[in-house]
Design goal:
mainly alpha, globular
Length: 201
Protein backbone atom coordinates (compact mmCIF):
# COMPACT_ATOMS: atom_id res chain seq x y z
CA UNK A 1 0.00 0.00 0.00
CA UNK A 2 2.89 2.35 0.75
CA UNK A 3 4.09 1.90 -2.81
CA UNK A 4 0.70 2.98 -4.15
CA UNK A 5 0.64 6.01 -1.85
CA UNK A 6 4.02 7.08 -3.25
CA UNK A 7 3.02 6.39 -6.87
CA UNK A 8 -0.29 8.27 -6.61
CA UNK A 9 1.31 11.22 -4.86
CA UNK A 10 4.17 11.40 -7.34
CA UNK A 11 1.83 11.38 -10.36
CA UNK A 12 -0.32 14.09 -8.76
CA UNK A 13 2.63 16.32 -7.91
CA UNK A 14 4.00 16.05 -11.45
CA UNK A 15 0.58 16.91 -12.90
CA UNK A 16 -0.01 19.83 -10.52
CA UNK A 17 3.33 21.58 -11.08
CA UNK A 18 3.29 21.14 -14.85
CA UNK A 19 2.16 24.36 -16.59
CA UNK A 20 -1.23 23.92 -18.16
CA UNK A 21 -4.71 25.39 -18.63
CA UNK A 22 -5.78 25.00 -15.00
CA UNK A 23 -2.61 26.62 -13.68
CA UNK A 24 -2.98 29.51 -16.14
CA UNK A 25 -6.59 30.00 -15.06
CA UNK A 26 -5.60 29.99 -11.40
CA UNK A 27 -2.91 32.55 -12.19
CA UNK A 28 -5.48 34.86 -13.75
CA UNK A 29 -7.88 34.53 -10.81
CA UNK A 30 -5.18 35.16 -8.19
CA UNK A 31 -4.18 38.29 -10.10
CA UNK A 32 -7.77 39.52 -10.28
CA UNK A 33 -9.35 38.33 -7.03
CA UNK A 34 -6.48 37.47 -4.67
CA UNK A 35 -5.42 34.12 -3.27
CA UNK A 36 -8.13 33.81 -0.61
CA UNK A 37 -10.97 34.00 -3.12
CA UNK A 38 -9.12 31.66 -5.49
CA UNK A 39 -8.09 29.04 -2.92
CA UNK A 40 -11.30 26.92 -3.16
CA UNK A 41 -10.52 26.40 -6.86
CA UNK A 42 -7.79 23.97 -5.76
CA UNK A 43 -10.66 21.51 -5.21
CA UNK A 44 -11.59 21.57 -8.91
CA UNK A 45 -9.94 18.20 -9.77
CA UNK A 46 -11.97 16.49 -7.03
CA UNK A 47 -15.20 17.65 -8.69
CA UNK A 48 -14.31 17.37 -12.37
CA UNK A 49 -12.44 14.06 -12.28
CA UNK A 50 -15.30 11.97 -10.87
CA UNK A 51 -17.34 12.04 -14.11
CA UNK A 52 -14.12 11.75 -16.14
CA UNK A 53 -13.08 8.60 -14.29
CA UNK A 54 -16.58 7.13 -14.62
CA UNK A 55 -16.71 7.70 -18.38
CA UNK A 56 -13.19 6.40 -18.96
CA UNK A 57 -13.42 3.32 -16.75
CA UNK A 58 -17.03 2.29 -17.36
CA UNK A 59 -17.93 3.54 -20.84
CA UNK A 60 -14.86 4.25 -22.95
CA UNK A 61 -12.09 2.22 -21.27
CA UNK A 62 -9.76 4.14 -23.56
CA UNK A 63 -10.39 7.66 -24.85
CA UNK A 64 -11.13 7.42 -28.56
CA UNK A 65 -9.21 9.69 -30.91
CA UNK A 66 -12.38 11.36 -32.21
CA UNK A 67 -13.58 12.15 -28.70
CA UNK A 68 -10.16 13.47 -27.75
CA UNK A 69 -10.19 15.83 -30.75
CA UNK A 70 -13.68 17.06 -29.87
CA UNK A 71 -12.64 17.64 -26.28
CA UNK A 72 -9.49 19.47 -27.37
CA UNK A 73 -11.49 21.77 -29.66
CA UNK A 74 -14.08 22.47 -26.96
CA UNK A 75 -11.28 23.21 -24.52
CA UNK A 76 -9.70 25.61 -26.99
CA UNK A 77 -12.92 27.63 -27.14
CA UNK A 78 -13.20 27.72 -23.33
CA UNK A 79 -9.58 28.81 -22.93
CA UNK A 80 -10.02 31.58 -25.52
CA UNK A 81 -13.13 32.80 -23.69
CA UNK A 82 -11.20 33.09 -20.42
CA UNK A 83 -8.30 34.72 -22.27
CA UNK A 84 -10.62 37.44 -23.60
CA UNK A 85 -12.32 38.06 -20.23
CA UNK A 86 -8.93 38.24 -18.50
CA UNK A 87 -7.69 40.70 -21.15
CA UNK A 88 -10.70 42.94 -20.50
CA UNK A 89 -9.91 42.83 -16.77
CA UNK A 90 -6.35 43.88 -17.60
CA UNK A 91 -7.72 46.80 -19.62
CA UNK A 92 -10.02 47.91 -16.80
CA UNK A 93 -7.12 47.74 -14.35
CA UNK A 94 -5.10 50.03 -16.63
CA UNK A 95 -7.93 52.55 -16.75
CA UNK A 96 -7.89 52.80 -12.97
CA UNK A 97 -11.15 50.93 -12.43
CA UNK A 98 -11.21 47.90 -10.19
CA UNK A 99 -11.29 44.57 -12.02
CA UNK A 100 -14.49 42.59 -11.81
CA UNK A 101 -14.06 40.21 -8.91
CA UNK A 102 -15.72 36.81 -8.76
CA UNK A 103 -17.00 34.89 -5.78
CA UNK A 104 -15.19 31.77 -4.61
CA UNK A 105 -18.01 29.41 -5.75
CA UNK A 106 -18.02 31.04 -9.19
CA UNK A 107 -14.25 30.69 -9.48
CA UNK A 108 -14.46 27.05 -8.36
CA UNK A 109 -17.12 26.24 -10.98
CA UNK A 110 -15.07 27.90 -13.69
CA UNK A 111 -11.96 25.97 -12.61
CA UNK A 112 -14.02 22.76 -12.80
CA UNK A 113 -15.07 23.69 -16.35
CA UNK A 114 -11.46 24.39 -17.35
CA UNK A 115 -10.31 21.04 -15.96
CA UNK A 116 -13.23 19.12 -17.50
CA UNK A 117 -12.39 20.23 -21.05
CA UNK A 118 -8.66 19.80 -20.54
CA UNK A 119 -7.54 16.56 -22.30
CA UNK A 120 -4.93 15.98 -19.58
CA UNK A 121 -7.24 14.38 -16.97
CA UNK A 122 -8.95 12.27 -19.64
CA UNK A 123 -5.65 10.95 -20.95
CA UNK A 124 -4.29 10.57 -17.43
CA UNK A 125 -7.22 8.42 -16.35
CA UNK A 126 -7.24 6.48 -19.61
CA UNK A 127 -3.53 5.78 -19.93
CA UNK A 128 -2.04 5.97 -16.41
CA UNK A 129 -4.28 6.27 -13.37
CA UNK A 130 -7.19 4.19 -14.69
CA UNK A 131 -5.18 1.08 -15.64
CA UNK A 132 -3.19 1.25 -12.38
CA UNK A 133 -6.35 1.58 -10.29
CA UNK A 134 -8.09 -1.29 -12.11
CA UNK A 135 -5.08 -3.55 -11.71
CA UNK A 136 -4.79 -2.82 -8.00
CA UNK A 137 -8.54 -3.18 -7.49
CA UNK A 138 -8.53 -6.78 -8.75
CA UNK A 139 -5.65 -7.68 -6.41
CA UNK A 140 -6.19 -5.46 -3.34
CA UNK A 141 -9.02 -2.89 -3.32
CA UNK A 142 -7.46 -0.98 -0.42
CA UNK A 143 -4.33 -0.42 -2.50
CA UNK A 144 -6.44 1.05 -5.32
CA UNK A 145 -8.16 3.36 -2.83
CA UNK A 146 -4.76 4.39 -1.45
CA UNK A 147 -3.50 5.13 -4.97
CA UNK A 148 -6.46 7.33 -5.89
CA UNK A 149 -6.68 8.94 -2.45
CA UNK A 150 -3.01 9.92 -2.37
CA UNK A 151 -3.30 11.28 -5.91
CA UNK A 152 -6.08 13.72 -5.04
CA UNK A 153 -4.72 14.71 -1.62
CA UNK A 154 -1.38 15.66 -3.16
CA UNK A 155 -3.05 17.29 -6.17
CA UNK A 156 -5.30 19.54 -4.06
CA UNK A 157 -2.53 20.43 -1.59
CA UNK A 158 -0.06 21.27 -4.37
CA UNK A 159 -2.57 23.47 -6.20
CA UNK A 160 -3.46 25.19 -2.92
CA UNK A 161 0.22 25.84 -2.20
CA UNK A 162 0.64 27.22 -5.74
CA UNK A 163 -2.26 29.63 -5.18
CA UNK A 164 -1.03 30.79 -1.77
CA UNK A 165 2.58 31.24 -2.88
CA UNK A 166 1.52 33.16 -5.95
CA UNK A 167 -0.88 35.37 -4.03
CA UNK A 168 1.42 36.21 -1.13
CA UNK A 169 4.55 37.13 -3.07
CA UNK A 170 5.73 40.64 -2.33
CA UNK A 171 5.62 41.86 -5.94
CA UNK A 172 1.88 41.29 -6.25
CA UNK A 173 0.88 44.92 -5.84
CA UNK A 174 -1.40 46.75 -8.29
CA UNK A 175 1.27 46.78 -11.02
CA UNK A 176 2.16 43.14 -10.41
CA UNK A 177 -1.49 42.10 -10.54
CA UNK A 178 -1.98 43.92 -13.83
CA UNK A 179 1.13 42.25 -15.27
CA UNK A 180 -0.12 38.83 -14.17
CA UNK A 181 -3.49 39.51 -15.77
CA UNK A 182 -1.83 40.26 -19.10
CA UNK A 183 0.53 37.28 -18.87
CA UNK A 184 -2.24 34.85 -17.96
CA UNK A 185 -4.45 36.23 -20.75
CA UNK A 186 -1.66 35.61 -23.28
CA UNK A 187 -0.97 32.13 -21.87
CA UNK A 188 -4.65 31.18 -22.00
CA UNK A 189 -4.90 32.50 -25.57
CA UNK A 190 -1.86 30.47 -26.63
CA UNK A 191 -3.30 27.33 -25.02
CA UNK A 192 -6.65 28.00 -26.72
CA UNK A 193 -5.19 28.47 -30.20
CA UNK A 194 -2.89 25.49 -29.75
CA UNK A 195 -5.83 23.33 -28.65
CA UNK A 196 -7.87 24.32 -31.69
CA UNK A 197 -4.90 23.66 -33.98
CA UNK A 198 -4.28 20.27 -32.34
CA UNK A 199 -7.92 19.27 -32.88
CA UNK A 200 -7.61 19.67 -36.65
CA UNK A 201 -7.46 16.37 -38.55
Amino acid sequence: MLENLIIGGSIAFAAAVQPGPLQAFLLSRVAADGWRATLPAALAPLISDGPIALVVLVVLHNVARGFESFLTAAGGCVFLYFAVTTFFEWQRAGEGSAPETRSSPQTLLQAVAVNAVNPGPWLGWSLILGPLALQEWTEAPLSAIALIGSFYVVMVLTLALFIVLLGTTSFLGPRGRRTLLLVSSLVLACIGFYSLWSALP
